[in-house]
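Exercise: predict the fold of this chain.
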Amino acid sequence: MPAPLIKICGLTTPAALEATIAARAAYAGLVVFPPSPRHLALTDAAALAARAAGRIKLVGLFVDAADSLIAEVVEAAKLDVIQLHGKEDPARVAALRAAFGKPVWKALAVSSRADIENAERFAGAADLVLFDAKPPKGAALPGGLGLVFDWTLLSGYKSPVQWGLAGGLSPANVAEAVRTTNAPLVDVSSGVESAPGVKDVDLIAQFCLEARAA
């Protein structure tokens, strides 16, 4: 099995971006959601994107965002991918894909096999679904909480849509996660931080090494 593609999400500084590129991650994630400690203002997202300048694919993460906001960020940060992390349904996903002509990823909260099978609803609408751990009731954030779901729920899973694995991944567990799930893509945020929203360049490098060593 080929090594998984890697996405480092929630980058906020040039140092974190450079570490992500140096570690040969495929995707860098920029969060545009004010409640998150990883939220970027439009000008900051644009500055990081200018620094990336074609060296890595940029994913913009949105939570139930208006078209106008997504349009601003797509233009300012020259996004390659739009990632939706809210309550967006397949029709909304398909509409955004058509409107912006960009690949659209949809994060799905998982705590049961039924949540995994929910991905089938997004076949033909999303370019990729991202299985993430379901946050506790009343949580302010839909992801980036360091929570892990039961990876064996993905055992033998044949998806009708491309998929990736998120939720509580870190250098310590990503190899096991890849071996258990055969995930074609892994996505990390809090697992490579020294504090909420503060990326650790050494952890980024280590995560990428461990993901490929699985």
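Check your answer against the key: The two ends are 10 Å apart (CA to CA).
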